[in-house]
Amino acid sequence: SQLCTQTQTDSQCTCSQTLKRMLRALGTSTGTLLRRSVLLFGCTSSPAFPVFRFSSRSAFSSSMAESPSPAELSQVVENIRSVRERIQARCELVKCSPPRLVAVSKTKPNELIQALYAQAGQRRFGENYVQELIRKATELPTDIEWHFIGHLQSRKVKSLVAVPNLVMVETVDSLKLAKSLNKEVANQRPAGTKLDVMLQVNTSGEESKSGTNPANIAALAKEVSQLGGLRLAGLMTIGRPDAGKDQPDFVTLKECRRLVAEALAVEETSLELSMGMSADFEDAISFGSTNIRVGSTIFGARSYASTS
Length: 308
Prior knowledge:
The chain is of the alpha/beta class. 44% of the residues lie in helices and 14% in strands.
């Protein structure tokens, strides 16, 4: 697990000395680890400089995670029911229709997703990593509706669009990415079909977050709306964690929607607002969210490397 956390995504670790120190601490020989690594990671290096490739941190932790206990399976079902009750209570308070609930299952094992599917009727799940979504989509029921909610690189668009039950990409932040999606929809999906997309807006101005500048959102929306393979479903943002009850990011996203609706000559309500996560989904509902993305409140805290 230490090796994994020290390794950058999609990179290699060739530090033999660090590896040997770890092995001595674990009482494991290099040869033993190499034999196991061939099975687990496809190691093809020499014993002197072991080289491991990880497609992502989540792929490592998922492959090493133990199966959830019956108590853990029951807990996630209870958690999502609690979330739904909180959604309903807030909607009754502000007199609005319930938003779509996307259960964010990144790094979580299939068994937990299956429990929510079978016991709670949950059908919409969100993933942040392309390879993890692809793997889960092939292993889980085909009527699950997958939302991609992570940063998307153009080079991974082709494999993502190939997932037949991918229903929405919520993180389009450039015309280049939109054109790549549009091209692959035309190449891989039945004629006349459209893929729903949302434009991600960096409402907080944080450099660590993806998303287009609010000042550019109307122009980007006009360009994307012209692409025949995509349907502009709405706008998405990730609110800052210390926003408080005023929620400036939600206010900004609503203003962006007004500008986009004006530019496209459509009703504001025809454009969705994807905002609100585990810590702030109730506030997001009060500010008009139609799509909330809830992960840790349902699945529990995330572990990006196995600690067993």
